[in-house]
Design goal:
This protein is an all-alpha fold. It has one helix and no strands. The longest helix has 16 residues. Bound molecules: zinc ion (ZN).
């Protein structure tokens, strides 16, 4: 198992276990916002395999 010190992917500071994998709740929120923005930026709706083509 890797024992290297992991860093916050947002600001590169050493992460805090309480907020892993981030260093703080603030960075965690920032990552979440980026993730949501990426979702809104999708070019189109994903295909829905459960949709009935005859509906
Ligand atoms: Zn951070």
């Amino acid at each position: 198992m890797m024992t290297a010190l992991k860093k916050c992917p947002i600001c590169r500071k050493p992460r805090v276990e309480e907020h892993a994998p981030f260093c703080s709740a603030r960075c965690r929120d920032r990552d979440l916002l980026q993730w949501l923005e990426d979702g809104y930026a999708l070019p189109g709706p994903p295909a829905d395999p459960d949709r009935d083509p005859e509906a």
